[in-house]
Input
Amino acid sequence: MMPIVLSSTRYLLFGGLVLLAACSSTPQSGPAAGSGGETGGARPLHDGPPSYMQDVSLIPDAVPTPHTGAYKASPYTVLGQRYQPMQDGRSYREEGTASWYGTKFHGQHTANGEVYDLYGMSAAHKTLPLPTYVKVTNLENGRQVIVRVNDRGPFYSDRIIDLSFAAAKKLGYADQGTAHVRVEGIDPVAWQQQNNPSYLVTREAVAEAPVAAALPAEPVENVQAGGYYLQVGAFSSDQAAQALRQRVMGVVGNNVRVSPVQIDSRTLHRVRVGPLSTQDEARRMMETLRVANLGTPALVTAN
Output
């Protein structure tokens, strides 16, 4: 009987038993066959870093975006071990060892059905609901990143999270393979309300929405005057914002701008697409950006 593939990057299902395909991400010795952006050719035998090193300081963190659809949080079994995912990861907090995974899984599907990009800001976790946003702090150097958990693992040893290569590189432990970290769940609604003053989605809308789209159910009053905008990211660094703007422009064209805003004593440089005339157009643009591995942007009504 042929196996049913649940996730080509992590495991295969044989008659209800999940067997691990691969999940460790400690770099292997020898050259890596493949790199970020390379999707053709044979899949590397061993995991490792890409042959082309992109400047990860210009890669934005994942943007916590409220998820209004169903979460992937069903029990599963790997190598005889039963895992019971939690139903809410917002208050999750744990310290332990983090690893990373790279070229061997680049371009493969995650447990969430998305495509793994070693230069994306994502992660694998054994029991957090998918998707969940977490802040990861390298306790050895104080560096922090925000990633989107969309995969299962790691299933080796006592490691608590498996980060993408880019996330590990930004945290400063890609070369040694592991680091002692703190992982903290993020409430996307609270995060958006704190970091994005013009954000539209309320906690009640997220709880009641029947479809997986971080959009209000009806047009907001007077929105036609200014149109809709999709906020793809916000940075303290204008250089990082301009770098993301160039990536987004390569996907959607010239209708992308960097819009600075003063919040308390700091300036945030927001990368926004728009204006868009209707919610349908915004949804289509959202899907285009998601397929291009540029995250799920927030819908706003002011630029």
